[in-house]
Specification:
- The protein has no helices and 16 strands.
- By secondary structure, it is an all-beta fold.
- Strands 1-6-2-3-4-5 form a 6-stranded antiparallel beta sheet, with no helix packed on it.
- A hairpin with a 5-residue loop joins strand 8 and strand 9.
């Protein structure tokens, strides 16, 4: 058993007869009244996101997890296939177990949280940034804007990301996986 002081992003807890992963949290100490923790929880079985508030010192039932590196192999409908980089065992996960499946490129190495009690995979943690190639975007016209303007671009994985006007087809860009936003152009 843990308490609210142990809450952190990525912690898996048992809540309402299901296992949830903490996506966001905020410790709040109002000027009047007791402290509390506001959380955003994502169910690892259904993918549903719920908001919940825990009072300070509340006991939470954390789930013991192990992390393993897996390489993404290929998609098959809504099923994604991964291979363990240590023992080469393969597992298949559903789309709702992934936070940003549209940014996942074949060969990408991710971290998968596995429940130690039953050996079931709980969720997939993407790397903080991925490098993707732009496959389609409209040409940007210089002098059209007075401020930082963006245009939609389609990536090699099929994802759509807003990029600056100077990005063209064939460029490789770095994308932040948490928000799905453009970070910078990558020169190789």
């Amino acid at each position: 058993m843990a308490t609210t002081s142990d809450i952190r992003k990525g912690l898996c807890i048992r809540f309402n007869h299901d296992i949830y992963k903490i996506v966001e949290f905020l410790h709040v100490k109002p000027g009047k009244g007791p402290a509390f923790v506001r959380t955003k929880l994502k169910s690892v079985t259904t993918g549903k996101v719920v908001d919940n508030t825990f009072s300070a010192g509340h006991k939470i039932d954390d789930v013991r997890v192990e992390t393993h590196s897996f390489q993404y192999l290929y998609p098959e409908g809504d099923t994604f296939h991964f291979m363990n980089t240590e023992d080469f065992n393969q597992i298949a996960l559903q789309r709702n177990a992934l936070d940003a499946p549209e940014l996942l490129k074949e060969g990408e190495v991710v971290t998968i949280l596995i429940n130690t009690e039953d050996g079931m995979p709980l969720s997939v943690e993407m790397p903080s940034h991925v490098v993707l190639e732009v496959t389609h975007t409209e040409p940007g016209v210089k002098g059209n804007t007075a401020t930082n303007a963006t245009k939609p671009a389609t990536m090699e994985t099929g994802a759509s990301v807003n990029v600056p006007l100077f990005i063209s087809e064939g460029d490789k860009i770095k994308v932040e996986t948490d928000k799905g936003t453009y970070v910078e152009r990558v020169k190789e």
